[in-house]
Amino acid sequence: MTAFGDDAIEAARRIFAGPVGFLKSAPALEHLPDAVVPEVAFAGRSNVGKSSLLNALTNRNGLARTSNTPGRTQELNFFDMGDPLAFRLVDMPGYGFAKAPRDVVRTWRFLINDFLRGRDVLKRALVLVDARHGLKDVDREVMDMLDKAAVSYRLVLTKADKIKPTDLDRVIGETRAEARQRPAAHPDILATSSETGLGIAALRAAVIEAIG
Ligand code: GTP
Ligand code: MG
What we know:
The protein is about 35% helix and about 20% strand. By secondary structure, it is an alpha/beta fold. It has one domain (about 5-210): P-loop containing nucleotide triphosphate hydrolases (Rossmann fold), CATH 3.40.50. It binds guanosine-5'-triphosphate (GTP) and magnesium ion. Guanosine-5'-triphosphate binds near residues 47, 50, 51, 70 and 71.
């Protein structure tokens, strides 16, 4: 795992403790806000914990809407960080949500893919993976797309509180091995829990590193 120094951790903590605001929801690409600052996007399968992780990073419960039911987030949601505005976080709909109507799944897939490969201010995508399940083929499809488009991304394990430490170590190892085969992936894996706060300080530092 990347070791961030105490200074980087503390600097990131301060930035995330500063002003945060919901900017807007974009249901389609023509509604995107102007690309004026660096952005970091949260991608991953439905229900993996994207919105929860955004809340944990900013320490604001309820900033991004979360739910037990997959398919909660249906648009690209932009959050302004810092005053003056320094960067933006983008919460995205989940992919691989089999129960949604087919045309909705298609719409989301195009929205997610077109945004990820076409947004010039996007500094990095965080591809979230449920620690209990590891990488699935639908994750690999998104990784293929990001590799092809040369969009930098980092794999982040979520819900680490839900598995035993030995299992977590194994999943970290397996996920890291795949990341290292991937040209656009960061070689290190961060394991997180929005419940316990595991890995949250490091992920803040990783976001700041990405926008820097
Ligand atoms: P969609 O917007 O539907 O794609 O889902 P999402 O990826 O934004 O997931 P969300 O943050 O809404 O979380 C889904 C469910 O997982 C919620 O019931 C959360 O409370 C739960 N959850 C998220 N992160 C964690 C975690 O770190 N640990 C545990 N135990 N539960 C979590
Ligand atoms: Mg969500």
